[in-house]
Design a protein that fits this description.
Layout: E1 8-10, H1 16-28, H2 36-56, H3 63-87, H4 93-116, H5 123-147, E2 149-151, H6 159-176, E3 180-183, E4 191-194, H7 195-225
Parallel strand pairs: 1-2
Antiparallel strand pairs: 3-4
Length: 227
């Protein structure tokens, strides 16, 4: 089994060429009192802001900007905590891995529940997508242990891209409001589906797909190793 401090990070995201230099620039300019634990806390604060924005969006679309601001705050804290630790050579591999991912799981539950409590995405769709995310997270953690590979991205998409998609979705919600698509199919009674239900459901479908594909491939690799 792989030791946690020797795992290989895989983070081949679309925005990596922009994000990595930006994080290094920020890490070099953080005040001395700032540390990775505080940044992790800032990341959690960000999702609480996002949750509030989604819940309050039922009172007015303007609150969606608060939800988007929460994603930016979350990106700052969640993406910078590990970068700062590596920049200052103060890594604590086991503690950092544990805290980072416990916070990540809690944050995603808060975000998806908040989205489901908004008037734009049904609660059922949000929770099904959350299950897909949590399944993929379990796979990532297991593979880190058994294969020494800590994968942050799938299909060139990682947390940063997902936050960007969420902000774009919030912006569309603000300008166009809740919209539905009418499906009139043969042999089926006409029905309508919310556009944002389709988007969030598609993300959930992709998460399930990434999970099943990676679980199958890695399982076959481990079987060949005979371990």
């Amino acid at each position: 089994m792989s030791e946690i401090n020797k795992h290989q990070r895989v983070n081949d995201i679309l925005l990596g060429s922009l994000e990595r230099p930006a994080l290094q620039w920020l890490a070099a300019r953080m005040p001395r009192w700032m540390n990775p634990d505080i940044l992790t806390g800032i990341g959690v604060l960000g999702v609480l802001v996002t949750f509030a924005g989604y819940v309050l969006s039922g009172q007015g679309r303007g609150w969606l900007w608060l939800a988007s601001l929460g994603y930016v705050i979350n990106w700052f804290g969640d993406s910078l905590d590990g970068t700062l630790a590596r920049y200052r050579h103060i890594e604590r591999p086991r503690y950092g891995f544990y805290i980072d991912h416990m916070a990540d799981v809690v944050c995603q539950v808060i975000v998806f529940v908040g989205l489901g409590l908004s008037p734009y995405v049904s609660f059922n769709v949000a929770i099904v997508s959350l299950v897909g995310y949590l399944m993929l997270s379990v796979l990532v953690y297991v593979l880190t242990y058994v294969m020494g590979e800590y994968r942050l991205s799938y299909g060139s998409l990682g947390p940063t891209e997902v936050r960007g998609i969420a902000i774009l979705m919030n912006t569309t919600m603000f300008f166009f409001g809740a919209r539905t698509i009418l499906f009139d199919l043969p042999l089926v009674k006409p029905f309508s589906v919310g556009i944002y239900d389709l988007l969030v459901g598609t993300i959930g479908f992709l998460l399930f797909g990434f999970f099943l594909n990676s679980a199958w491939i890695k399982g076959r690799e481990l079987a060949k190793l005979g371990e």
